[in-house]
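Lecture notes, unit on protein representations.

Consider one protein chain, 240 amino acids long.
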Amino acid sequence: MLTGCEAFSGYAVQTVVNAAHHGARDKNGVVPDYGGDGEARIFDNDLGWHIVLSEGFVVTTTAKIEPCEGDGVPLGMPFGPFPEDLTDLDARVTDFALMDLHANEYCNLIIEYGRYQSSVAAMAEDGPFPIGDLTNVEGASIYLAGTAEKPDGMGGNTVINFGFRSEQTIIVNLDMSTLEDGGPWTITGDEPNGRALTVAKTYDEFFRGVDFATLDKAAFEKELPARLAAQTRLVLGTTI
């Protein structure tokens, strides 16, 4: 626990917040290989649907860190909103936010997923994150597209093309009060190499319980923000 004197010292340490995504770990704790860098993600959900996720984006628009006592600190995003491409290499971290933080104990990281706006991205201090075709990403906070396939019981397969989109703003509060050795995440002022956090997402779990044969697209799109929030977690450092 930091003393009052330490908590309000003048020392500041650069903190970098990263993003990453991957499939849910198997029973042995291993991250699965669902595809290479720039490739579709291929996996089965719990209802036996064989899913090919050919396109997927999750857009992070702001981040704020809150000390256990006191006001929150907005983190800088020098590259603007981060359109995270789910076909990028799994478990690879990408830094999207940073800030020099003073010595203190920190209890919450608040992430906002929101609509990608190329006009906002263009105003980024250091230039926007690279992104290809904006057709399906512009104006969206989440976009998922691909195919789902399952045997039809008559010797063939049922194949369904899907495209899901949400434009909702999603606020995710990530608890840091027990993140570090069972206690709050702490800046002491004695971290010469800075500190790092990673916001990770398990994208295959977005499709848990989804039966594409009976799926109501509009209802599922309404659920997507909650599914994303439930599959967002905070990792200490950069090792997924």
